[in-house]
Amino acid sequence: MTSLNIGNAWQTAAQNLGLAVAKMPPFNECIEVRSDLTTPDPESQISQVQSMVAAGADGIISYALSPTAINSAYRDACEQGVVVIIFDATVTEPCAYNVSYITSVPTLPNGDLAEHPFMGYNAMAELLRLMEGDDEIFVSHGVVGTSTDNVHYGSALAALEQVAPDTEILTEYEGRWSSAQQQAETAKALASFPDVEGIFCGYGETGCVNALRAVDKEIPVSGETSNFFRLRLLEGWPGVSIGSPPAQGGIAMKIMAAILLDGPAGIPKDIEVPYQIVTADNVRECTGDYQTEGCNVFPEGTVSDEDTADIFNVMLPEASLSASRTGEPNPGDVAEPYTAEYLASLEQDPSRRYITRNACPDGWSEGVLSEGLDGCVEG
């Protein structure tokens, strides 16, 4: 089994959790993992997928850099009997399994499910609530062209239109899920528009906040899941932390194990990973290596600014902070295998299938969701 990633702190944690799970009983006796790092362009990823198949991989776990550009390589892998799992980002290739949070309904700070799915929609809606009016904002993209950024952006625009349609986007820029790039681009935007009242910022939000601090400006920010940002929320910075759980690396490994060891029967091709919205109302420090009492941020100095406590997820109870950093389980850690029945309970809602597959299930047709994105309607 082989996995690959594109090399930022989030990807490293996701890959390490996958490696650690594979080294836990009962998987450690029957699974061998080889990992590889790809440069962030589709052509390189295609080449690496082909190399993995040629090397005899039984399964490939991959973060897809495009929803369509790598499809032919994934299809060829499937045709040679290789199980392909895409985590976090998604692809339209029907043979691949999509394991992702991007169409999931998140959990609110009070523990209830949000009214709407999609991280982008919920992040923008909460940002606008914190701004308390129709104002002017910046919008920062991740890596433009990935399925993740496409869905975040589209649903965020829908929330903007529905919640505060008079809000003006002063400028948009590509943060590429990098703190350094976010800081540089936000600083340039602030030089042109110093009176901005909010920032829709993606992963790398440390850069957005630091650019604001450099000009002594504290305004609402929607960020993802960096430890730095959640500590700022704990201190009172106005914002919402909502984003992709790197636990998906370990989750994808457990799904791969279920398919290879027990067969694919009953396991959906599209699985929605649960995740949470964190604000000042529910940000809570973790005090040990494992999750306790819903904790979701580590004390200052415990981890780097870019590390995230969203290594903890209801689907990955065996996760630990040390595993996310080293790829090694702690002595005594045991993986809890998934059953097909459990995974079936997390199957993507059919109304959202078009977003990830560009097609609707039998009995459904293309339509528009209440969140403004193209989706599927029954009948």
Topology:
Blueprint: E1 2-5, H1 9-22, E2 34-37, H2 42-54, E3 59-62, H3 71-79, E4 83-87, E5 97-100, H4 119-131, E6 136-141, H5 147-163, E7 168-174, H6 179-192, E8 198-200, H7 205-214, E9 221-223, H8 227-235, E10 239-242, H9 248-262, E11 270-272, E12 277-278, H10 321-326, H11 340-344, H12 353-357, E13 364-368, E14 374-378
Parallel strand pairs: 1-2, 1-3, 3-4, 4-5, 5-11, 6-7, 6-8, 8-9, 9-10
Antiparallel strand pairs: 10-12, 13-14
Helix pairs in contact: 1-9, 2-3, 4-5, 6-7
Description:
The chain has 379 residues and is α/β, with parallel strands linked by helices. Helices cover 34% and strands 16% of the residues. The protein contains 12 helices and 14 strands. The strands form 3 sheets. It has a 6-stranded parallel sheet, sandwiched between helices. Strands 7-6-8-9-10-12 form a 6-stranded mixed sheet, with helices on both faces. Helix 7 links the parallel strand 8 and strand 9. Helix 1 runs parallel beside helix 9, helix 2 runs parallel beside helix 3 and helix 4 packs parallel to helix 5. The chain is globular. The termini are far apart.
Describe the structure concisely.
The chain is an alpha/beta fold. Helices cover 34% and strands 16% of the residues.
Overview features:
single chain, alpha/beta, six-stranded parallel sheet, six-stranded mixed sheet, 16% strand
Q: What is the string of helix and strand elements?
A: EHEHEHEEHEHEHEHEHEHEEHHHEE
The neighbouring-strand order within the major sheet is 2-1-3-4-5-11
Shape: globular
Strand count: 14
Strand content: 15-25%
In percent, how helical is the residue content? 25-40%
**Gyration radius from CA atoms, angstroms:** 20 Å
For the biggest sheet, the summary is: 6 strands, parallel
- Structural classification: alpha/beta
Number of DSSP helical runs: 12
- Poorly predicted regions are none
Distance between the termini: 40 Å
Mean pLDDT figure: 92
